[in-house]
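for the recovery benchmark. tokens below, seq after
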């Protein structure tokens, strides 16, 4: 698998508006826009920082993945995303190596990216997202 860079770091927050007062107003990161990803039951805000981005994730449904994460662990770092050249190839390589995946097939994430999550049990507790952008 060829990982090109850290595409973004995802942070689970209770409310994007409140989080923006820290990340944007206080820390000075520019807001690139807010988008709802229905499939993931989240609202996301992307803020570029150098060659990568910070992604804030607010749950739109307590039963969604971010809602459950916050209920169990509170707000905080949720995942890191590796930009890959070819997500289909990356997933088949990982499957061939027997790596446990959350997503066997890519799906669509914020900004039209194709994404898939590796199971945190496979990475010592770190949720890693693979992300292909065209
Ligand atoms: Zn992400």
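predicted aa per position
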């Amino acid at each position: 698998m060829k990982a090109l860079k850290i595409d973004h770091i995802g942070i689970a927050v209770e409310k994007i508006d409140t989080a923006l007062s820290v990340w944007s107003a206080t820390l000075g990161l520019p807001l690139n826009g807010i988008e709802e990803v229905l499939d993931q039951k989240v609202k996301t805000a992307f803020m570029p920082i150098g060659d990568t981005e910070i992604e804030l994730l607010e749950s739109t449904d307590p039963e969604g993945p971010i809602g459950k994460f916050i209920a169990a662990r509170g707000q905080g770092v949720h995942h890191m995303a590796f930009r890959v050249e070819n997500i289909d190839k990356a997933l088949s390589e990982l499957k061939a190596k027997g790596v446990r995946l959350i997503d066997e097939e890519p799906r669509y994430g914020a900004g039209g990216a194709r994404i898939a999550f590796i199971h945190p049990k496979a990475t010592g507790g770190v949720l890693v997202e693979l992300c292909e952008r065209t």
